Amino acid sequence: MTMANQTTVTEFIFLGLSSDPQMQKFLFVVFLLIYLTTVGGNGAIMLITQADPDLGSPMYFLLSHLSFSDTCFSSAIVPKMLETLLSERKTISVSSCIAQMYFLFLSGCSEVFILSAMAYDRYAAICDPLHYMTTMSKRVCCQLVAGAWLIGSLYALSNAIPLSALHFCGPNTIHHFSCELPSLVALSCSEIFTSNTVFLTSAMVVVLVSVSSTLGSYIHILGTILRIRSVEGRCKAFSTCSSHFIVVGLCYGTSVFRYFRPNSASSVLLDGLLSIQYSILTPMLNPIIYSLNNKEVKAALRRLLRAKNHSAPR
Q1: Residues 140 and 198 sit within 8 Å (Cβ to Cβ)
Q2: What is the pLDDT of residues 257-312, one digit of tens each?
Q3: Nearest to 110 by CA among 77, 76, 147
Q4: For the chain, how far is it from start to end, CA to CA, in angstroms?
Q5: Is the separation of the CB atoms in 168 and 8 below 8 Å?
Q6: Using CA atoms, how far apart are residues 92 and 84, in angstroms rounded to an integer?
Q7: Closest by alpha carbon to 97, among 20, 29, 186, 34?
Q8: Which of 180, 136, 135 minimizes the C-alpha distance to 159?
Q9: Which DSSP state fits 158?
Q10: 3-class secondary structure for the chain?
Q11: In this predicted model, what pLDDT tens digit does every residue of 181-223 receive, in sequence order?
């Protein structure tokens, strides 16, 4: 059958996590609570880092942008997911699907480079503390964040353009709750070599550059910590980067396995669980991790709550 005689698909159907109406209502409540926690937690981090003068250091400037990217990432998925859980027509147009994937790639790629910038910040603070404020000046921090979003934009655009050129003629069912590149490419009726090549090449470059820069910073940090003679000094130095280390593990672990695992390890259930972990749970957990492991953040949150209580009408 020639391309001209094939029916063009204009929308996709999400099969989601369950076809049971009662389970869908339960999942709606669960993911709504997770999304509200994500927006509230990351919003609180952004608010206190801007409003509290004690959190004016470069580390908290970068943390606020990490929270912003987490909010963007979650917002690209969860609202549409909640809509499809309650709607009888669980559809999304092809253009909207590609747009969703674009914003996922944009915020996801930006996040890994913001994490790399945060690792460099910890390197500067621990390995060269005397020049920390010079190394991590306001201008440098702004350049690092702008660079992260620029790279994210280029990465998302380079993958969205080949995808938009694909022809979809059926089937149009996505065995997932969001538009991710592997799911879309599998539905294409045209050649996918270009799209796959661009994705693998760009993803490898992003992963190698971000991981190598983050790993390089931590190698220097570890060497510096091991040279500290007192146990108390080692614990204090390690505590300043423990939260970041946990967040990096959450960010890279499941997402890299999701896209780079062999096809033999693929399954609809496994793909769904991995996607929930890195796209829905991780953005919620990040502000919790930083709040629980950081005394300054906890103190700022307490000050913010006290200020709200004092300003509330009696």
Answers
A1: no
A2: 666 666 555 566 677 777 888 889 999 998 888 876 677 777 777 777 776 666 65
A3: 147
A4: 74
A5: yes
A6: 9
A7: 186
A8: 180
A9: H
A10: CCHHHCCCCCEEEECCCCCCHHHHHHHHHHHHHHHHHHHHHHHHHHHHHHHCHHHCCHHHHHHHHHHHHHHHHHHCCHHHHHHHHHCCCCEEEHHHHHHHHHHHHHHHHHHHHHHHHHHHHHHHHHHCHHHHHHHCCHHHHHHHHHHHHHHHHHHHHHHHHHHHCCCECCCCEECCCCCCHHHHHCCECCCCHHHHHHHHHHHHHHHHHHHHHHHHHHHHHHHHHHHCCCHHHHHHHHHHHHHHHHHHHHHHHHHHHHHHCCHHHCCHHHHHHHHHHHHHHHHHHHHHHHHHHCHHHHHHHHHHHHHHHHHCCC
A11: 888 888 988 888 899 999 999 999 999 999 999 999 999 999 9
Residue that has been written with the tokens 């006290």 in this structure: 306
Rounded (10°) angle between helices 282-293 and 295-311: 90
d(CA 47, CA 55) in angstroms, rounded, equals 11
- What would the two tokens of residue 207 be? 């992963």
- Cα–Cα distance between 133 and 228 in angstroms, integer? 22
State the Cα–Cα distance between residues 174 and 186, nearest whole angstrom.
9
* Dist CA 166 CA 172 (whole Å): 13
Distance CA 260, CA 178 (A): 18
Kindly give, in sequence order, each residue whose CB lies less than 8 Å from that of residue 269, ignoring residues fewer than 6 positions away.
none
Identity of residue 249: G
Instruction: Tell me the torsion sign for CA atoms 277, 247, 31, 145.
Output: negative
Q: Say whether pTM exceeds 0.85.
A: yes
Name the β-bridge partners of 12. Answer: 92
